[in-house]
């Protein structure tokens, strides 16, 4: 199935220009069974990125536009009384899908956010006392707008910790952006014309293979040293949790598999550490005043940990 996965990556990169690393990280996240927080200004192709991945995987896709008046039942579903049949009927919400895009998740109150995040963690939904399991492949991508904060409800740190990665979507280069414009004008980005490259059964099979990817004790210790150092660094106010270490380990196995290896190297750990930690740590106030970014501090911290041989 590696050949099909390679074909999927190639087709994905053809359709989405200027985000090569983020596309692979997004794929690594879904292969790890995790969820992703996407942050980028409007119009940078976040929805297209997620919709295209769902199409290539042959999975179902739903998008929810989060607004201040969105209710938990609008996501999970509700029970109504069918007068014709004189029975109660359960209407399942858009959360019952393979790939869910939670657009502008920080525009809805904490109660609605919590309904989604509970489903992400438990892989199940309760509607009027009845519990329903979600599909084995259930992947949430939540987007945030980093430049507009009026009327928003920022995700608390504890809830952000539920996401495997936080990916930052930057503007592409001039050549890549021109290519996007050309594809749109020529109607080559229509997701309805996408051909399925991997079936859901094949995708689940790849997940099983990734679970067999080896992580040596030295690489595990390297991962833990990085995570524990976030708790001791003066530049960091609140360090990463144990879940962060688990996320790095799972994501590194998926990244190694995408690179065609059955073992994890320290470089794989370095590759996934920044997206796995940037939403899980808080910088000290004096560091923020100096203008340092989370990514800069993570890079310095990783560089200070000896690499195992």
The average pLDDT is 87
Instruction: Count up the helices.
Output: 13
The overall number of domains is 2
How many strands appear in the DSSP assignment? 11
How far do the termini sit from each other?
Answer: 31 Å
In short:
The chain is of the alpha/beta class and 309 residues long. It is built from 13 helices and 11 strands.
Describe this structure in words.
The protein is α/β, with parallel strands linked by helices. It folds into 2 domains: 169 residues, P-loop containing nucleotide triphosphate hydrolases (Rossmann fold), CATH 3.40.50; 91 residues, Helicase, Ruva Protein, domain 3. It contains 13 helices and 11 strands. The strands form 4 sheets. It has a 5-stranded parallel sheet. Helix 1 packs antiparallel against helix 3, helix 9 crosses helix 10 and helix 11 runs antiparallel to helix 13. The longest helix is centred in the C-terminal third of the chain and has 17 residues. The chain is globular, with a radius of gyration of 20 Å. The two termini are 31 Å apart. The model has no long low-confidence stretch (mean pLDDT 87).
List the topology elements.
Blueprint lengths: L1 H14 L4 H12 L4 E4 L6 H12 L3 E5 L6 H5 E6 L4 E6 L6 E5 L6 H13 L1 E4 L2 E4 L5 E6 L12 H4 L4 E4 L5 H12 L14 H11 L6 H16 L3 E3 L3 H17 L7 H12 L4 E2 L1 H5 L4 H10 L6
Parallel strand pairs: 1-8, 1-9, 2-5, 5-8
Antiparallel strand pairs: 3-4, 6-7, 10-11
Helix pairs in contact: 1-3, 2-10, 9-10, 10-11, 11-13
